[in-house]
Amino acid sequence: MAVPSWWAPGEENGILLYKVKAIADRWTPEIAEKMAKRGYVHYHEFVNVETGDEHEYLVMWLKHTAVSSFEFAPAPMPMAKHYVTPGVDFGFMPNWDKDPTL
Question: Taking the domains of the chain in order of start, what are their residue ranges?
């Protein structure tokens, strides 16, 4: 039995979809806007491994550069579905609307 593709239906599992660059920086509304214009539309919080607490202001900004054309349809987040062409994916699951009070 074939297992369905998790991120790109119709593509083989294990295929290279993106090259990812990362920058550790603060999160502020101004930095989020600057990063989004550069293609860093997605971030991950730093988490303390002992307590599970998120870092107060530091995040890892991610830029996803597609290596081919495909339909991006992440199983856990259907609202992020979109068609991708080679180059920076400015539509990659944006989440830079973090609490502006930080």
Answer: 23-88
